[in-house]
Amino acid sequence: MRVVLALAPLLLAATPAPITPTEISATVKEISSDAYQGRSPGTPGEARTIAYLVRRLKAIGLQPAAPGGGWTQAVPLIHDVAGTPRALSVTAGGKPVPIAVGTDIAPGTARAADRVRIEGAPLVFVGYGVAAPERKWDDFKGVDLNGKIAVFLVNDPDFAAKPGDDAFGRFGGQAMTYYGRWTYKYEEAARRGAIGALIVHEPAAAGYGWNVAGNSVGGTYALPVGPGEPQPVALQSWISGPFAERLFRAAGLDLAALAVKARSAGFRPVPIGDATLSIDMPVSSERVESHNVLAKLPGSGHPQETVLYGAHWDAYGVGKPDARGRTIRPGANDDGIGVAALLALGKAFKAGPAPDRTIGFGFWTAEERGLLGSEWYARHPAFPIAATVANLTIDILQTAGPSRDIVLVGAGQDSLERDLAAAAARQGRTVTPDAKPERGLFYRADHFSLAKRGVPTLLLMGAGGGVDLLNGGRAGGDKWVSDYTAHCYHQTCDLWSPDWDLRGAVADIEALRTVGWSLANSRAWPTWNDGSEFRAAREESVAQRR
Fold first, then answer.
1. pLDDT (0 to 100) of residue 367
2. Which of 22, 54, 58, 85 has its CA 20 to 30 A from that of 475?
3. Are residue 272 and residue 385 in the same domain, yes or no?
4. 38, 316 in Cβ contact below 8 A?
5. Regarding predicted confidence, which is higher, 27 or 13?
6. DSSP 3-state assignment of 96?
7. CA atoms within 13 A on the CB side of 109
8. Has residue 141 been placed in a domain?
9. SS3 content of the chain, % helix, strand, coil (to 5)
10. pLDDT-derived band of residue 135, with 50, 70 and 90 as boundaries?
């Protein structure tokens, strides 16, 4: 079999009607209404969401695609809600270091347990906590973490590196890699036997403020631990930057100076003096069955090959009242717009001729809880991974009107970027890379579950950077992003609004429609670029497609 490296000329989907802002708005208005209770997994809000999605998909005329032939794929989740600690203390230098839940720490766990109890666990600073042999980097140097709590810096060693630092350029500059993600750090701590993991929050390095990192509303979710897999750490949490500075100072250490040393390949873990942490925290733990929703438009020529669109249906559910007394975090944009886009795409494709390849639609659960629904799907795929041509994901789109460009998160990764550029050019627009790759958005959406298994991806995420708005320019686009992420991202004000101008969002959806339709009617197999960490996984799948 010959692997085609680029698409044939882009084909416009032959459907009689375009996707409209009105239909996107109507869907978002419905699923972000109070009746859906913020669409949290395992709640009545999920049941209502799933029923709505299945009803819409049936009405469109798509076919069910879940394993076993139904519309839904069961996703088992461990749901832990941490209670108010009965006791929580940190000591350093023989004295207590004041610590407050919510202000300094948001303790949680991913273990299936009814209690987290830790007595006097030593704290060890592990720098960025990266073990990357392919980059000749190991922050751990064989340190024994059993029974200890690892304290991490967020992001990669390269994030704040200067010329002359060992880390400079080794992790792609300020573009966050997977090693910079909080999920990786918790997993690495568990692999090394730590009893707990704390990540020092810093807004620029994390990509969001303490209002997000310190928000434990809804608790934590995790997939069940499989045979041979390590148990999650008993305690996992962010700690605020100011608290971390006080802690290190009380232990006679300079956190800022240690952070500089952590940019050296020779860095070794540093015990935080005699500092210890104790906690006794009740946990409400339950097994939750959530669901992905899967649909397809079967291909007429090569139905075993699939172009897969994706968006997550879940949001943040019900939490503490905000200043106005609102408790529901409705996720209108994140990712109600993505859900609306997939339904509109399914309707548009169904109205036209059958594609040569199958077009699939994945509505994922528990994205907000760590990409869990898409990860479960990737472990148990309905469409074989090797025969999945590409994954095209939508997760937040801007609502400020038409733009001169499309912001692509993860630019420079694969050949699909050229196809998106060609589709944008048909609209008289261009593609702009994510303005702040240091935030690691490429590793924070559901496409990543498929990317790390080798499936080429495109991610459209309106929070990826300020678009060049027709009315307001780049400054207007930057303002939209900063306002949304600072005030409404994961908050009660992520509400549907009749004042949204969705013309720019619809143009983005139409561009992704063109890319997907062209892939579904070609023999092309998109490829990862040289240097991508996902290229090897894709190359291994070539033989499976022959």
1. 96
2. 22
3. no
4. yes
5. 27
6. strand
7. 28
8. yes
9. 30, 25, 45
10. confident
Q: Find out whether 150 and 182 touch, Cβ atoms under 8 Å.
A: no
**Contact predicate 400/465, CB 8 Å:** no
Same domain, 360 and 249: no
Q: Which residue has the tokens 């298994």?
A: 453
Q: What CATH number corresponds to the domain at position 456? A: 3.40.630.10
Tokens of 37: 């209770």
Query: Is residue 369 located within the same domain as residue 474?
Result: yes
- Residue with the two structure tokens 């000749």: 136
What is the CATH classification number for the domain harbouring 113?
Answer: 3.50.30
The helix/strand/coil state of 439 is: helix
How many structural domains are present in the chain?
Answer: 2
Q: What distance in Å separates the CA atoms of residue 456 and residue 416, rounded to the nearest whole number?
A: 7
| Closest among 520, 513, 508 to 303, alpha carbons compared | 520
Please answer whether residues 516 and 19 qualify as being in contact, where contact means their C-beta atoms are separated by less than 8 angstroms.
no
Question: pTM for the full model?
Answer: 0.86
Question: pLDDT exceeding 70 applies to what percent of the chain?
Answer: 97
* Of the candidates 485, 494, 446, the residue with the CA atom closest to the CA atom of residue 464: 485
pLDDT digits (tens, 9 = 90+) for 456-494: 999 999 877 889 999 999 999 999 999 998 889 889 999
3-state class of 101 per DSSP?
strand
What is the β-pairing status of strands 131-132 and 115-125? unpaired
pLDDT digits (tens, 9 = 90+) for 89-106: 999 999 999 999 999 999
Closest CA to 532 of 432, 412, 393, 433: 412
Report how far apart the first and last C-alpha atoms of the chain are (Å, whole number).
6
Q: Is 383 helix (H, G, I), strand (E, B) or coil?
A: coil
By residue range, what is the domain housing residue 205? 80-285
SS3 call for 87: strand
Peptide bond into 414 cis (omega under 30): no
Strand pairing report for 388-394 and 302-312: parallel
Q: Sort strands 115-125 and 149-153 into parallel, antiparallel or unpaired.
A: parallel
Task: Give the torsion sign (CA, 143, 149, 155, 160).
Answer: negative
Q: Residue 367 carries which DSSP code?
A: S
- Reported as type and span, the H/E element at residue 187 is helix 182-191
Q: DSSP characters for 199-263?
A: EE--HHHHTS-HHHHT--TT-EEEPPPPTTPPPPPSEEEEE-HHHHHHHHHHTT--HHHHHHHTT
The CA distance from 255 to 278, in Å, is 21
d(CA 128, CA 151): 9
State the Cα–Cα distance between residues 19 and 125, nearest whole angstrom. Answer: 52
Poorest-pLDDT segment among 4-18, 28-42, 61-75:
4-18
HSE on the CB side for 120, CA within 13 Å?
Answer: 2
Structure tokens at 425: 């050019």
Question: Residue 254 carries which side chain, given as an amino acid letter?
Answer: D
